[in-house]
Amino acid sequence: MKKLLPLVFIVFFISCEKEKSQNDLKISIENALGVVASQSPLGGDDLFFKDVSYGNGSRNLLDVLMSNKGESKGVVLFFHGGGFVAGDKEDAYNELLKETMQSLLANKITIISANYTFINTTGNKGVISALEDGTAVIDFIQSQSNTLQIPVNKMVLAGVSAGAGIAQWNGFRESSNTQVQGVLAIAAQSTYDLYDWENVFPGFSLDDLRGMSPVLQTLFSQFYNGEPTQEDLDTVDYRGFMDATDPPLYVFNQAGDELINSQGELDFDVLYHSFRHSDYLRAKAIEVGLPFYGVYAEGLDAFVLRVLK
After folding, report:
1. CATH architecture of 38-308
2. d(CA 219, CA 2)
3. Where exactly are the structural domains of the chain?
4. Residue 130 in contact with residue 144, Cβ under 8 Å?
5. Consecutive 10-residue averages of pLDDT for the chain (309 residues)
6. Which of 62, 109, 184, 223 could serve as a FRET partner for 306 with CA atoms 20 to 30 Å apart?
7. From CA 64, how far away is CA 37, in angstroms rounded?
């Protein structure tokens, strides 16, 4: 029994020191970010910092969710979907992604989920406002990397639908991809030059569909903040940015390719999320020599863990 006492004391001492270190980290982050840690939306006792401001806009808010089991091995920056008119950063914790996010946390990957400016926000510049918000989040994370104890050059940009577009636009731009090791795009669009979608869908005419669908016409006008110039189209054509030096791309699209449904109406799920978009991205990746992956090869969390090791 006497021999066991020193061992028990050592274990107790190490446990207390670990708890103190975790509490010191929590307090340090609270002071730096200006928010108090709250209960993790995924359960457990991981550290969660909600509604951290990264800019001046009403939707320039992000959440930080990090493991309490040791130093972070990297970060996944997630952007939600919603067609740039809906959705919220809390979508990262829903049933669709919950298991993936829990797996990442278990492997000491920090998760940052961000809101961004909607295209129907008064005074915005169209979709470019949301895309540039993505850049602002990346800059914010870099500025707080020491506080959050995130290693340099260990970031994956991820998103669903509209969020996948933000991830790709920033992941393939030379000015914002220096910290990025991978881009994970779920239900992705292939480019935000919407006229280039005429190369995605056989027989597709954007202007004809704009005339057919008042909803599409309104969205188109909000998307570009009016009628776009060729320069506007080029600025948001992230497929055109792709080259062999960019981070590897993982795309997961499941929607079909019938644009008009049985009621004779435009199917927006197909328009936005068809497998044809992933095929178009894959063709570009092959052309420029960029590594391209999908669910046929590995799971979402497996891709993240591989590129961040």
Report:
1. 3-Layer(aba) Sandwich (3.40)
2. 75
3. 38-308
4. no
5. 49 44 86 96 94 97 93 96 98 95 96 98 97 97 94 94 98 88 98 98 94 93 98 98 97 96 92 98 98 94 96
6. 62
7. 9
